[in-house]
Amino acid sequence: MLLSTLILASIVVSLLWFSILEKLKSSKIGYFIVILVGIAFLYRSPVHSIYIGIEIMGLGCLVIWMKNLR
């Protein structure tokens, strides 16, 4: 189950990256967007979607943090 949710979360984060997050100047807005999308998966969802939401928040914040290291 962990591998299947991680694959779906990485697809969602990559879609967010190429559509929105890469173009942002402020990292605070990026963190807010990623956490908002993760919470959308958490709200009234089955267990599978809850894990995906948690992984979206984790991967998304990691990607934004790594962007700021450059």
Brief synopsis:
By secondary structure, this protein is an all-alpha fold. The protein has three helices and no strands.
Oligomer: single chain
How much of the polypeptide forms β-strand, as a percent range?
Answer: under 5%
Structural class: mainly alpha
Low-confidence stretches: none
Distance N to C terminus: 33 Å
**Largest sheet composition:** none
Helix percentage: over 70%
Question: What count of helical segments does DSSP give?
Answer: 3
Name the shape in a single word.
Answer: globular
Question: What secondary-structure arrangement, pairings included, does this model have?
Answer:
Elements (H helix, E strand, L loop, with lengths): L1 H18 L7 H16 L4 H23 L1
Question: Can you offer a commentary on this structure?
Answer:
The structure is a single chain. The chain is built from 3 helices and no strands. The chain has 70 residues and is an all-alpha fold. Helix 1 (2-19) crosses helix 3 and helix 2 runs antiparallel to helix 3 (47-69). The longest helix has 23 residues, at 47-69. The radius of gyration is 12 Å and the shape is globular.
Comma- or semicolon-separated keywords:
70 residues; mainly alpha; 0% strand; globular
